[in-house]
Request: fold
Amino acid sequence: MPSFFSLQPHRSVISVAGADRVEFLQGLISNDTRKVAPDHAIWAALLTPQGRFLNDMFVADAGGDTFFVETERERAPTLAKKLKMYTLRSKVDVEDLGATLEVAVAFGDDTSSAFGIEGAVSFADPRLSRLGVRVIAPAGQAAALLSARGFTEASLAAYDALRLPLGVPDGSRDLQVEKALLLENGFDELNGVDWKKGCYMGQELTARTKYRALIRKRLFPVKLEGPLPEPGTPVHRDGEEVGEVRSGTGDRALAMLRLDAARADGTALMAGATRIVPEIPDWMHLPDPGASSG
Reply:
C-alpha cells in the first residue's frame, strides 16, 4: 500500500504547559503521563468519578515544558474548561489551540518520513503501529507538509477503512459519553490504561471491572452485508437485541455486541435489513467462554 495522509478535521489540540504538567494529568487520566517522551506519546481517557468515558486523548511531548493533548474538536472547549477547573494551585496553563493547530494521520507502507517535520509534532499511534503516525501541524499546513514528504492525500473515510477492520474506536463516534466503560472498548489491549500508575479519576471502577472479569460485551469490528446502518441502530439475534452499531463506512463498521452474540456461529445478527458479521481482531483478548466470571 502506498503512503497516504488523511486530515482529521474532527480532532483538535489542547496544550497543557508548565512545571507540574506531568503530575497534573497523572491524577486525572487513565494512562501514565511519565511515559510521555519526545519519541513516545500515550493514549488515555478522562473518566467520570463513576468510571464512565468522558474524553479520549493522545498526550504528546510538544517540546519545552508543554504537552499537546489531541482530542475531539467538538468537545475540546469543554475539556479545556474542565482541565482548567482542576488546575487549582498547580503550575500548569491549559489552552485550547483548536484555532491554530490541526491534526492529520500518515498511514501506509512507510510512514517514517512523517517524523521530524519542522514546525510539527509527530508521533506513532500508541494503540497499534498499523494505524500510522499522527501529525499535529499549524492550521492549514498539514497537507502541504505531508505532501512535501511524499504522502498522497486521502479522505477521512480512507483512514476509517483502515481503522474499522482493526476494531479501534474514535472518541464519541464509538464510545457513549458518560456510559462507556474503557475495558469494553479496547483500552486495555490498546495501551490506553496503566494498571500500576496509582489513582486517577474513575480508577476504582476500571480496576474492579478488570479484576472481577465483569465484561459482558465488547466493541467489535464487523462486516456488513447490506446498507450501512446509522450509528445507534440496534443489532438483533432471533428478535432479541444484543448490541448496537457505532461508526462505519462502506461495508465495515464497529458494533457494541454481547460476547455470546459475537461468538455465536450460524445465527444471523441483523441491524435493520443488514446482516452483521463480527470479527475478533488479533489484539483482542476475550475470556474463555467456559470460564467462571468470579
In short: DSSP finds six helices and 16 strands in the chain.
